[in-house]
Design brief:
Blueprint: H1 2-79, H2 85-140
Helix pairs in contact: 1-2
Length: 141
Amino acid sequence: LQSKQKLGKLQEEIQEAKKEKETVCKQCNEVLDDMQTSEATLNRMEEKLSHMRKQHRLKMDAALEAFESAKLQLVKVEMEHEEGVSKVEAGESEVKSMERQITAARKIGEADIEGMIDSYKKMETNVLDQAAKLMSAIHVS
């Protein structure tokens, strides 16, 4: 009779352990799904950051080229001083405008990059937290 009771208890404990295992497995699968989603998001964000950096670089190159062009125009205006001081002043004004545009473009680009880096760091923290949860869940079972 006692061995039947013990056997019954053991069978109940086995059933409970199986249920716990199923629960932990479901949790692990959910965490894995979340991790995969986070990794995909992270990859997309990294691609977007890379794309934004390329765009910023292209814009900066174009701005620098425009700046160099404006400087050359200024030199030309200075060499053709006999055409009048008004042309020299116009060239200087254009250079200053380009410098402001370059400064503005640089600030915008740097702010965009900083925003993406912050987003990347947040995503990295989330991924690491989820990995830690997964490891914790694995150790529970």
